[in-house]
Amino acid sequence: MTDENKVSAGWLKLASSLSHVARPQATEAGTYVNLPLERGSTVVFPSLDAMQQTGRKRYDHVSIYGAMGSPTQHELEKAIATIEGGTDTQVVCSGLAACTTPLLAFLKAGDHCLLADNVYGPTRRFAENMLKRFGVEISYFPPCADAATITALMRPNTRVVFTESPGSHTFEVQDVAMLAEIAHAHGALLFFDNTWGFGVFAPFKHGVDVSIQALTKYPAGHSDVIAGAVTVADTRLWHTLRDAAIQMGQVAGPDECWLTLRGLRSMGVRLAQQAKSALHIAKWLQTRPEVARVLHPALPECPGHTYWKRDFTGAGSLFGVVLKADYTVQDMQRMIDALKMYGIGASWGGYESLILPTTGGITRSSESPVQNGPAFRLQIGLENPDDLIADLEQGLQVLKSA
């Protein structure tokens, strides 16, 4: 299969499952296609014994109290676990909460956490501030490091290796199976931010212990939901994660969960088109004289492309662009301001196209593939790709005339 076909193939393969997962069973009296939205805080029981028995089932995705999850949240959790290939999912209030909740659940004072240098910026900020303040040691590994380098960075007290592949700003793809093997050999867990590859990367088949997703992105898909999820495939890990989520009051609102369930239904076909358009636009940008480098995992020039080719069944809609060093950051800013079809904003994964400068917004300890020229990232939506290219073309004219 060519890379052009592969970027959308995994999404289309997923489409049938997404249409049927977490759906109500038809009854003789008739059943609505979509699950009902259930809001509530207090759950009442017919007897004290019934209440006490249900209260002991906190690991079973049942309704105990609104702050421990709603029926709508529990159905979304089942759907996410199915897509990820895990056993249990905890839905939380945001993508960042999906990163921080398991870190708090599995780390304690005196432990060491080793993070990929291209990890999501707010995750890094949490590690540098909150985790360090709680007595957790923090260090980073180069995203493209080999096994010997990773092994040398492990410590006797390393309990978590946290990675994100590809990175959401610099797009290096990592050898996740290698990271898992080294982490496990040293008694550590591998946490994996699977937001970019959710649906087209099977984390637990590659040795991941805890998989993290920002449901805000592809699953919800319409830029109107903030939610996250943490998935595991081990009962012991699930109990630790679930207890921590309850103790921290980590829960998502039923409306956000219902909207995410609705968004999931179309995620396969949405992303099949968006992935196809994104690669088409990325290849067009490669031909432009203003562009030094395009960082799209499906392109051979992207760091770790061979791991994308080996491990992923599709590609996302987000990629990076590095301009030639002849241009300044101010030149790039004028180009961005001239665009008509790309919104300027954070986040990604919705139906609309976005652009965001990455120069000046990245903290790194090691060399970055976007450090040699002004850089930005593109989220490609459902617009006609020819219209998106035409808009970029006129933007690049502004860049050249600066």
How many distinct domains? 2
The geometry reads as: globular
| Total DSSP E strands | 12
Strand order in space, largest sheet: 1-7-6-5-4-2-3
Strand content: 5-15%
Mean pLDDT: 94
What class do helices, strands and sheet pairing give? alpha/beta
Under CATH, the topology of the largest domain is which? Aspartate Aminotransferase, domain 2
Gyration radius from CA atoms, angstroms: 22 Å
End-to-end separation in angstroms reads 42 Å
The CATH superfamily label of the largest domain reads: Type I PLP-dependent aspartate aminotransferase-like (Major domain)
Oligomerization category of the chains in this entry: single chain
**Main sheet summary:** 7 strands, mixed
* CATH structural architecture of the largest domain: 3-Layer(aba) Sandwich
Low-confidence stretches: none
User: What is the helical fraction, as a range of percent?
Assistant: 40-55%
Helix and strand run: HHHEHEHEHEHEEEHHEHEHEEEH
Top keywords for this entry?
402 residues; alpha/beta; Aspartate Aminotransferase, domain 2; 2 domains; seven-stranded mixed beta sheet; five-stranded mixed beta sheet; 12 helices; cysteine-S-conjugate beta-lyase activity; EC 4.4.1.8; Cystathionine beta-lyase; Cys_b_lyase_bac
